[in-house]
UniProtKB/TrEMBL annotation:
GO cellular component: external side of plasma membrane; extracellular space
Ig-like domain segment(s): 197-285
SMART domains, alphabetized: IGc1 (SM00407)
PROSITE patterns listed in its UniProt record: IG_LIKE, IG_MHC
InterPro entries: Ig-like_dom, Ig-like_dom_sf, Ig-like_fold, Ig/MHC_CS, Ig_C1-set, MHC_class-I_related, MHC_I-like_Ag-recog, MHC_I-like_Ag-recog_sf
Family membership noted in the UniProt record: Belongs to the MHC class I family.
Protein name: Ig-like domain-containing protein
Domain of life, per lineage: Eukaryota
Organism listed in the record: Denticeps clupeoides
Signal peptide: 1-16
Keyword Cell wall biogenesis/degradation annotated: no
GO biological process, one term: immune response
Amino acid sequence: MKILIIFIIGIHLTAGVIHSHSYIYTGTSGIPGFPEFVSVGLVDGQEVNYYDNNLMEMIPKQEWVKGAVDADFWKRNTQNIIGTQQVFKAGISILKERFNQTGGIHTFQRMFGCELDDETGVTDGYMQDGYDGADFISLDLKSTSYVAPVKEALITKQKWDVADAERRKNYLTQECIYWLKKYVRYGKSSLERKVPPQVSLLQTDPSSPVVCHATGFYPDKVNISWQKDGQDLHEDVDVGETLPNHDGTFQKRAELKVTPDERKKNQFTCVVEHKSGDPIHMILTEKKIRTNSAGTGASRQNHQSSCFKVSLLEVFIESVYNKVWWRTFHSLVLRTKLFIKLLFKPE
Ligand SMILES: *[C@@H]1O[C@H](CO)[C@@H](O)[C@H](O)[C@H]1NC(C)=O
Ligand SMILES: *[C@@H]1O[C@H](CO)[C@@H](O)[C@H](O)[C@H]1NC(C)=O
């Protein structure tokens, strides 16, 4: 799973630029007010197209994408994805039976895509399905066969090895690369742009961790860390994942657990490194911290409980989200998660 994460968010240790094209499908059941099926298409981590069952239409998410695709693209892909949506719906019913479940909230997700090293021309691909946030089945490109990590997936593997593996491999190694090359050509100026991060220090209340929050940056590669008196801190620091914003930029945060006493005795600095410029150093001072409101503790509590009613859905999203499968999911989820996490005044 780790390898896959690194792959998808595009952190690569090789010299050449690695481009990626991927799709994430999410099917859900039992979540009122939430789409039953969502598809997000990405190029280099940038959302390029979107579909959900309410919209019933695949739509472009970047201006430049419109030029990259043929006239029939949106109609053709809408037809295909409606088919996939039906397969996912039926799939969840089948899996519920297989896992002996009657009701409740369930998710079935698929991530697949390809990557291309623009210097060496080396390509790779993957496809992986997850049920309720856990690995269910994945394709092994080398052997052109499926891998079933759970017994409930064995029957699926047997079917797909015969009916689907070859076709899927063909898509990942040929068609996906074809589209990736096309997207990179048309999206060059957007994909190669550099936007610096906005960095702020946030804290819910004096006893909670201090969050160093970098947002609005592009591309997604960023290093964010805390220093104590000029030395890198690893203990008491919790670095989050890089998350996409709705506008195509990214955000990431690093939480520092520190007592008021320690803060007085030492200097803590958040350091954010990004390709767009020199490292940003934010020295932790009382003045720089943004909190929820200027009001008293009591009024802040009231504010939080009225604005941030943590519903079952949000708790669910919060817990599933951490399991990576929801990582690149729709910005609605990201915003919900961040609001819960930071309990920050949404203005
Ligand atoms: C499903 O549940 C029934 C009734 O509780 C039980 O008898 C059966 O063994 C379960 N099957 C599986 C695959 O867990
Ligand atoms: C992050 O740190 C690594 C290791 O020190 C370095 O190779 C990489 O260039 C840094 N990334 C950025 C965006 O500064």
